[in-house]
Amino acid sequence: MDKSRFIFFCGKMGAGKTTLSRKLAAQRNAVLLSEDEWLASLYPGQISSLQDYIHYSGLLRPQIKSLVQSILRSGTDVVMDFPANTPKQRAWFRSIFSETGAEHELIYIDLPDEVCLQQIAKRSAEQPERAATDTPEMFAQVTAYFVEPSDEEGFDISRI
Length: 160
Hints:
Elements: E1 5-10, H1 17-28, E2 31-34, H2 35-42, H3 50-73, E3 78-83, H4 87-98, E4 103-108, H5 113-126, H6 136-143, E5 157-159
Parallel strand pairs: 1-3, 1-4, 2-3, 4-5
């Protein structure tokens, strides 16, 4: 039996991680897990700042890790629409796949800020429920923490 494959993403807010994750999950017949969907479902209306996001995201991680590892051990591919935008976030992803022996791919969507901001504005207009957090100010706050993945981190990186 082939090893399961674990796919996750790095890219600034608005880079297209969600769109690409959905496409890849459908192509690969993989399980797709979306952080935004989990947070909205479990903590509706409770995330209005970067600090809220960090808090509630941290609450999800232990259960999500266990779930993803169980799926990977079953031989099923997993696509995670959770950000791998900092070394700390990427270390969490590493713990998931390294403890299961799954293959992995870190897809880095490298787009200029201007394109990301245009896509955020479009998304905010199309999804009014996200208008409070999909703002240029939130983009600036989140981007301040963004760290491009490096070869030294040792991930199998596909840059697009």
